[in-house]
Design a protein that fits this description.
Blueprint: E1 6-11, E2 15-20, H1 31-46, E3 52-56, E4 61-63, H2 68-71, H3 76-81, H4 86-89, E5 99-103, E6 106-108, H5 110-117, E7 120-124, E8 128-130, H6 144-152, H7 154-163, E9 166-168, H8 169-175, E10 180-182, H9 187-199, H10 203-215, H11 221-235, H12 239-249
Parallel strand pairs: 2-3, 3-5, 4-6, 5-7, 6-8, 7-10
Antiparallel strand pairs: 1-2, 8-9
Helix pairs in contact: 6-7, 10-11
The structure holds acetoacetyl-coenzyme A (CAA).
Acetoacetyl-coenzyme A binds near residues 106 and 140.
């Protein structure tokens, strides 16, 4: 598969790395880029050897948002008929293996929303997050008004969405948007370390863990706990559960086979 707006490679034959690649536009997200991103994610998800994916950008920008130039002349009829955002941007929600966002520089608007659609965010110390759509006369359109308050609470989400200001990596970590901050020059090394750790576990268990945590944002606590309990029970049907627990009991490393 060859791409124009992203680059794709694997690390250690286990981690699929997707780099957003419109550097001159600060990785502004247009429809073609989002189609390519969806294709790359789906291909990695379907590849048995891949256990985890990373989406990253450049040092200056993870992504500075939806492509404003492309969007500027759209009419209501254009965006409604073409199902703008939903059609090309939401493929990532169907990806079952873990996806980590490695964010340096600007993650604004759709860029911040893309990072939030990943399973967790590792931020470089130069990262800046924000939902500045209000300055353009619109509001976030790729889930920002829903995922940001779930991540940082109502007050900060309202502050960011209504003022359009950016928050730095320290504020984002304090607020719970990012899982950890690392020095810029260690961003890929640290993210790859986390990805390889995930790849070392049973793929069935990591997929079930992702599915179950995501359920926390989609229903009641009781429904979520019941969903988790059923997945937990189901994992006792896997070879990997027998292997993982036997390895612990016998003080040896586990060798998971994803069965
Ligand atoms: N769309 C299109 N082009 C963009 C862009 C975007 N979102 N963000 C930056 N660019 C382009 C600039 O137009 C500029 O191009 P030229 O060199 O051809 O002029 C280039 O990237 C570099 O940008 P700047 O010169 O502005 O760089 P800067 O360092 O001075 O500022 C910035 C960086 C603060 C990120 C600034 O570019 C900016 O504010 N960008 C827009 C951010 C924004 O509003 N994002 C939300 C978009 S709407 C959205 O995302 C909707 C949604 O929810 C889906």
């Amino acid at each position: 598969m060859s791409f124009e707006f992203i680059t794709v490679h694997t690390e250690a034959d286990k981690v699929g790395v997707i780099t957003l690649n419109r550097p001159k536009q600060l990785n502004a997200l247009n429809a073609d880029l989002m189609v390519e991103l969806g294709q790359a994610l789906k291909a990695f998800d379907a590849n048995e050897a891949i256990g985890c994916m990373i989406i990253t950008g450049s040092e200056k920008a993870f992504a500075a948002g939806a492509d404003i130039g492309a969007m500027a002349t759209y009419s209501f009829a254009d965006v409604y008929k073409n199902d703008y955002i939903t059609r090309d941007w939401e493929t990532i929600r169907s990806i079952r293996k873990p996806v980590i966002a490695a964010v340096s520089g600007f993650a604004l608007g759709g860029g911040c929303e893309l990072a939030m659609m990943c399973d967790f965010i590792i931020a470089a110390d130069n990262a800046k997050f924000g939902q500045p759509e209000i300055k353009l006369g619109v509001i976030p359109g790729a889930g920002g008004t829903q995922r940001l308050p779930r991540a940082v609470g109502k007050s900060k989400a309202m502050d960011l969405t209504l003022t359009g200001r950016m928050m730095d990596a320290t504020e984002a970590e304090r607020a719970g948007l990012v899982s950890r901050i690392v020095p810029l020059d260690k961003l890929m090394e640290e993210t790859l370390g986390a990805a390889l750790m995930i790849c070392g576990y049973s793929q069935i268990a990591t997929m079930a863990a992702k599915e179950s945590v995501n359920r926390a944002f989609e229903g009641t606590l009781a429904d979520g706990v019941m969903f988790e309990r059923r997945l937990f029970h189901a994992l006792f049907a896997t070879t990997d559960q027998k292997e993982g627990m036997d390895a612990f009991v016998n003080k040896r490393p586990a060798a998971f086979t994803n069965q």
